[in-house]
Each structure stands twice: as C-alpha cells, then as structure tokens.
C-alpha cells in the first residue's frame, strides 16, 4: 500500500502541469514594471500624510521617533484612513500581527463590522456599520496565558496587550473568497509591561545602539556642548539571506517525520546528491521557478524588496535574498517572506522546509544576517572608504564591533542556539559554534600596521593588477573581457561572523528562527562596546574638549590589541582551529543547554539589564523558555521516531522477512538447496531488524528519563541533550542500515532519492 502511494505521488509529480498565474499588466496588455506595483498593498507614510493635517502628521512623525506620545485625535484619523483604504481593497477584518517567543508570528482577526444601537419610542433599532477606532488601532488584547512566559505569569493570568509598532507600515494580505485582512505590526507585552515577544527587545536594542553611537560620533566630530549634533540618529541595517528546501507536497505527506518535526529522522543519501557541485547556481527547475516568481510577485506587492534568487548547494535547496532595510522592518519582512513562500508553495503543491538540517549528509540551511549601521544622513558607518587606515570614524566603529564579539561572543552563540540549528552548526557546510571574526587580508593588514606602528603594505601587483579606488582591478589576460573590479577582501564562508566589504555577515543564524533575537543581542553587544570605546576616548583626551587624531589612534590601537584573539582568517571548519581557539580562550559551546546558560552569566546579563534591553525577570523568563522549547522539541522528535520505527519501518521489514522466509521454504522444497541467496538476505536482515527493535527500547528509556523530571525546564533540557539525542542517533543508524537491506517495494515511506528530485 505504502509503495503504491509513493509510486502514485511520483507519477503525479511528472504529470502535474505547472501552475500559471496572471502577471500585472497595463491596459495595452504589456506587463507592468515591478516599480509600478511595488508596495501597492502597503499603507505607506505618504498615505498617512494625506490623511492628516500637517500639524497632526508632524506630531505623528515625532511619535515614530520616540519623542512624544500619539494623541487620540491623530490615532482616530489614521484608523479611519487605513480602514477606508483597506476596505476599498476587500478587507473585512484587521489583526494585530506580533512575534511571540514561539518561533512564529501570531494573529487574531477582528471584523470591521460592529453594531450601533439607537433607542426610539418604538424600541431599540440595531444598525450594522463598519468602524475602526484609534484605540483599536493602537492596542488589542489577545489572551496571553497560552503563550510562552517562562514563569513570569501563571495560566490564570491571561491578560496581555499588543501595541501598534508605528515604525513598521500596515499592509493587507489576501483572505478567503476574494477578501483581504489588514495587518498591523505590533509588539506584545504582559499586563505588567514585560516583553513577551521578540520585537519589543529588538526595538529597545536599536534605541540603545543609536544612543551609544551618536555619543561617540558627537565626540569625534567635535560637537560643542549644547550644539545640535550632526548625527541625531543611527539605525542598524539588515539583509537576511533566506535559505530553504522545497519538496513535493504529496511525498511530504507520506513522511510523518518531516510533517511533525520538519526534518527526516531516518534515511540514507542517494548515490548522487551534492558531491558533483552542479546544483549551486544551476538552472532552477521550472516548477520551482514558477513558485519563486509567484512568491516574489506577492512580496513586491507587500513592499518586501526581494532581490536575488538561486539554487543553493544541496539538491532541492534554494535561496531568496532582499535589499537591505532598517533592522526591525527587515525582520518583519523576513517573517512575511517565510509566510508568503509557504503559502505560495502550498498552492503549487509543494512544501517549504525551513529546518536547518532537514536531510542528513547534505548541506543545511541558514539565514545569513548582513548587518551594518547607518546614520540619519545615509552614511554607512562600516564603509572603510578608500583609505581605511586614516578613516578614524570607521576604525573606531570597527574596533567596537570586534570588542563586542570579544566580550559577548558566547552570548551571540546563545542567540542562535536551538534544537534544529544544533544539527547544522559545526557541520561541514555551516559556521563552527566558536564565535570569531573574519576581516580579510586588507583590513587585517590595516589593523596590524596600526598596532605595530609601521606603514601599511601596498597590495598592488603591477604585473597583474593596478590600484583602483576602494579595491583593485584584475587583468584576466583575455582581450575581449572588461577589467574586473576586485573587492578589498575575499569572503570566508567558514566564519560565523565575517566582514564582507561594508557590513558584517552573521552566518550562524538558523534558517527557521526569527532573526530578531540574534540581531537584538548583536545590537546590545555593540552598543555596550561603543560605550566602552567612548569612555576610553574620553579618558585618553583628558581635560581637552575634543579628542585629537593621536587620541583616536591611541584608543584604536588599544582595542586592536585587546581583540586580537577574536580575529581569525583561516579555515573555521578545521580541527586545527578548534585547538587554536582553545589556546586563545575562546568558548566552544557545543550544546544548547550550555549555550542557554550564558543568558544568566553575569558578564552578559548585567550588560543586557544595564542597557535596559531586558529586565532581570525578562531575561530569566527567556532562559526558561529556551530550555523548555529545546526539551519539547527533542521529546517530539523522539516520540515521532519511536512511532515511525514501530508502526511503519518494522512492520515493513517483518513483511519482507516473511516473504523471504516463504521463498526460502519453497526453494528448499523444490531442490533442497540449503544456502540460497534468499536465505543469505534473510540472515542479513534479521540482526538489522533486531537492532532497530533494541534502538526503540533505547529511545523509550530516554523518553522515560525526561518524563521522570517534573517542573524543571533546565533539567529537562539537559536530559534531552544527554539521553534523547544519543538515543535517536543510535536509532537512526540502525534504521538507516535496515533501509539498505529492505526491498524497495516494501519500504513504507519516500526515500531521499525521491524527496530530493523533481
């Protein structure tokens, strides 16, 4: 039966026509340019400006920048305008869209419809009207009792609030039957004002990094006390490269492990997978391209600036990358991208897998977070410019980032720790779990020359290349090709945190997780480091009103020396680096429970609470939530594996054994042959079946050890790591060996060779 379902699914993949949609067109039938419909489903700032009187709009802008509260009249005017705009586009409901600590977004839909009662002499007359007030726009009240709180509240304390994040624009998404829904990006807080979500702490961190960076810039730009600083706001920018797998939905439906956990718990690689290096940047399969294009169309309408699409390294693995945006908006857009891609894939009878390691033995998926800082004048503070060795602003910001990772690298490791990312980190295609920074040859030479007090080396090689501003030009010795501009630095894909020209790429973030928490921790660490650098600069300049170039250089030199251990230019995948990192004193945190402990490490917790990004109770809450989530994820996987092995894999093996035994018996009766090939196959199969049976017992024992722990999330997480993980590894090894011995017609679930093929 299972084999029949597999065959039918494979036939359907071959025969199913590619879904066709209508691309937006002009009246003359020509397709619209992307820029002509980009953001058409977004309620932009310009539309708010049209809806409000100038004084009210000016007041709203001040509120967006955190300088004053939003008054009721302005809120009512915006609510009325956005309701009319949304209803004209088919909206029947609105929702406050928020990011609880579940790894996903959440929403509760309310209708614009309300009832108005009028009392006359004839009695009450009820009239249906559409309405949306300023108070409904600003705040809603979802039930907070069923969301993770980490012990900050009990189940019966149900009240929580969602509050409109005015820095992220509202938008509409398609609903059922041709309708749509108005989405209001929001934060989520408890009745007592504690952050219950990912966005609140991110917004706090962006405020702190702006404050710390502006203080440093005012000092080095020699702004007199009381004068208006040139830079009044600094914001972090973010570009998230989203990797994912795309498989056929009919085959997905036949894999209970993928359906429940997001990854394969058993399975062997096919003879051909990624070893020929022919999938990366290869031709995108037509059905996948149709899915990508349809998703991009929806994202363009939602104002998400998706830019790049391509095949990734592993079969059926792909990537979608956007243009950089302000970090909080970029996080919203990444979560929206994941949601839209999943919906569109479903329409195309496919399934998106965001798990960091859905298939053992081939590359996993990450979410590379390209991070930088920009001023309110649009200046990238991590742009080294033509001569980084004399660009003291850049160098001070750069050593601040180095200092941040040096001091709080273990906390950054915490920010990317999860049960799913644990399968990817440290593997042959992912950054190691040791946090280090790659700067590249040129910047490394700049820092070394400053530290050693010598002239910088010239990187030009006249016989091959000539100097060009900001980089070099390569001569490839082919007359028909133009000169090739070469960047100042190469790329190091083995580094978890690499400088890539004018930004840092945080490569260790997992593909499934929200980028919010990792970026929050990065912002916090850099804000604290900027404060340290500013304090060192003030100490260096003494009583002078402004620091001299010599003062700046002295501070830069000091932090170059103190952060040398965190810089690594070599192969992060090598065993030699693990040994070298240990000599340098860099932490190598291998398991999630170890990583979670860093949240309560006084070095890190005091920094987070001092900056006001987390309260002590919020930090402790998150610690327990992360432990609890890890234990539950491992428990779900273990119970799913146990059920899969006991109810599908073993019965199939029993059926195959029975068939072999019957054949052996028949052959023996015919010719008396004692050593038939079938008998040899049966004898090889029997111990493999017993090994799977024994492994199920091992998984059961591990599950029992976790169940024996009550009301202690930390102990449960440690038990999951110590017992469930190795028990599942042993069970997988046994099951994968059994798969190699089981005839295909009896194997009950799609194999890797079918899942990783279109």
UniProtKB/TrEMBL annotation:
It comes from the Eukaryota. SUPFAM superfamilies: Glutamine synthetase/guanido kinase. Residues 92-193 form the GS beta-grasp domain. InterPro entries: Gln-synt_C, Gln_synt_N, Gln_synth/guanido_kin_cat_dom, Gln_synth_cat_dom, Gln_synth_gly_rich_site, GS_Type-3, GSIII_N. It holds the Pfam family Gln-synt_C-ter. One of its GO terms (molecular function) is glutamine synthetase activity. GO terms for biological process: glutamine biosynthetic process. Residues 198-649 form the GS catalytic domain. Belongs to the glutamine synthetase family. This is Glutamine synthetase.
């Amino acid at each position: 039966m299972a084999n029949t379902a597999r065959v039918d699914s494979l036939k359907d993949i071959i025969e199913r026509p590619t879904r066709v949609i209508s691309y937006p067109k002009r009246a003359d039938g020509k397709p619209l340019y992307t820029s002509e419909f980009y953001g058409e489903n977004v309620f932009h700032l310009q539309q708010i400006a049209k809806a409000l009187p100038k004084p009210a709009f000016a007041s709203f802008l001040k509120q967006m920048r955190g300088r004053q509260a939003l008054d009721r009249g302005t809120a009512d005017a915006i609510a009325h305008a956005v309701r009319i705009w949304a209803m004209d586009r088919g909206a029947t409901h609105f929702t406050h869209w928020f990011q609880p600590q579940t790894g996903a977004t959440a929403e509760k839909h309310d209708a614009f419809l309300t009832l108005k009662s009028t009392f006359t002499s004839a009695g009450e007359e009820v009239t249906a009207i559409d309405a949306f007030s300023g108070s409904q726009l600003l705040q809603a009240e979802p039930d907070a009792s069923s969301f993770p709180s980490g012990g900050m509240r009990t189940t019966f304390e149900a009240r929580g609030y969602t509050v409109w994040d005015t820095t992220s624009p509202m938008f509409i998404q398609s609903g059922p039957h041709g309708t749509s829904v108005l989405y209001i990006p929001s934060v989520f807080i408890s009745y007592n004002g504690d952050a219950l979500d990912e966005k609140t702490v991110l917004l706090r961190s962006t405020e702190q990094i702006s404050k710390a960076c502006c203080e440093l810039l005012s000092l080095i730009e020699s702004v007199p006390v009381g004068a208006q600083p040139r830079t009044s706001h600094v914001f972090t920018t973010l570009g998230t490269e989203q990797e994912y797998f795309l498989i056929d939905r009919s085959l997905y439906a036949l894999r209970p492990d993928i359906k429940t956990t997001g990854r394969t718990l058993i399975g062997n690689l096919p003879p051909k997978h990624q070893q020929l290096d022919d999938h990366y940047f290869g031709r995108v399969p037509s059905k996948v391209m149709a899915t990508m294009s349809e998703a991009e169309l929806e994202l363009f309408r939602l104002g998400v600036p998706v830019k790049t699409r391509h095949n990734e390294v592993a079969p059926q693995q792909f990537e979608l990358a956007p243009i950089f945006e302000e970090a909080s908006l970029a996080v919203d857009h990444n979560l929206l991208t994941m949601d839209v891609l999943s919906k569109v894939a479903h329409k195309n009878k496919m399934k998106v897998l965001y798990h960091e390691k859905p298939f053992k033995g081939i590359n996993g998926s990450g979410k590379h977070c390209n991070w930088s800082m920009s001023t309110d004048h649009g200046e990238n503070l991590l742009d080294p410019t033509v001569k980084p060795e004399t660009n003291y602003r850049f160098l001070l910001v750069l050593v601040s980032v180095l200092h941040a990772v040096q001091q709080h690298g273990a906390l950054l490791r915490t920010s990317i720790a999860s049960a799913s990312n644990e399968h990817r980190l440290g593997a042959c295609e992912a950054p190691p779990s040791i946090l280090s920074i790659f700067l590249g040859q040129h910047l490394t030479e700049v820092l070394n020359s400053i530290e050693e007090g010598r002239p910088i080396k010239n990187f030009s090689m006249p016989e091959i290349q000539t100097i060009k501003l900001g980089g070099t030009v390569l001569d490839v010795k082919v007359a028909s090709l133009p000169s090739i501009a070469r960047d100042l630095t190469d790329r190091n894909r083995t580094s978890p945190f690499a400088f890539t020209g004018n930004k840092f790429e945080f490569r260790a973030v997992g593909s499934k997780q929200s980028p919010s928490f990792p970026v929050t921790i990065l912002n916090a660490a850099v804000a604290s480091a900027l404060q340290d650098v500013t304090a060192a600069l003030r100490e260096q300049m003494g009583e002078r009103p402004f620091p001299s170039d010599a003062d700046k250089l002295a501070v830069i030199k000091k932090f170059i020396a103190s952060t040398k251990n965190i810089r690594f230019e070599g192969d992060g995948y090598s065993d030699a680096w693990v040994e070298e990192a240990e000599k340098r004193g860099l932490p190598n945190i291998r398991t999630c429970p170890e990583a979670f402990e860093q949240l309560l490490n006084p070095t890190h917790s005091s920094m987070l609470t001092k900056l006001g990004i987390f309260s002590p109770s919020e930090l402790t809450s998150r610690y327990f939530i992360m432990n609890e989530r890890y234990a539950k994820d491992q428990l779900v996987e273990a119970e799913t594996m146990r059920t899969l092995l006991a109810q599908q894999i073993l019965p199939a093996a029993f059926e195959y054994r029975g068939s072999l035994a019957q054949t052996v018996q028949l052959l023996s009766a015919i010719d008396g042959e004692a050593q038939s090939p079938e008998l040899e196959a049966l004898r090889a199969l029997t111990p493999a079946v017993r090994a799977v049976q024994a492994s199920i017992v091992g998984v059961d024992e591990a599950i029992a050890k976790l169940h024996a722990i009550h009301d202690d999330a930390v102990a449960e997480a440690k038990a999951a790591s110590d017992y469930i993980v190795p028990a599942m590894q042993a069970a997988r090894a046994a099951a994968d060996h059994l798969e190699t011995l089981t005839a295909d017609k009896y194997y009950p679930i799609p194999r890797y060779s079918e899942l990783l093929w279109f």
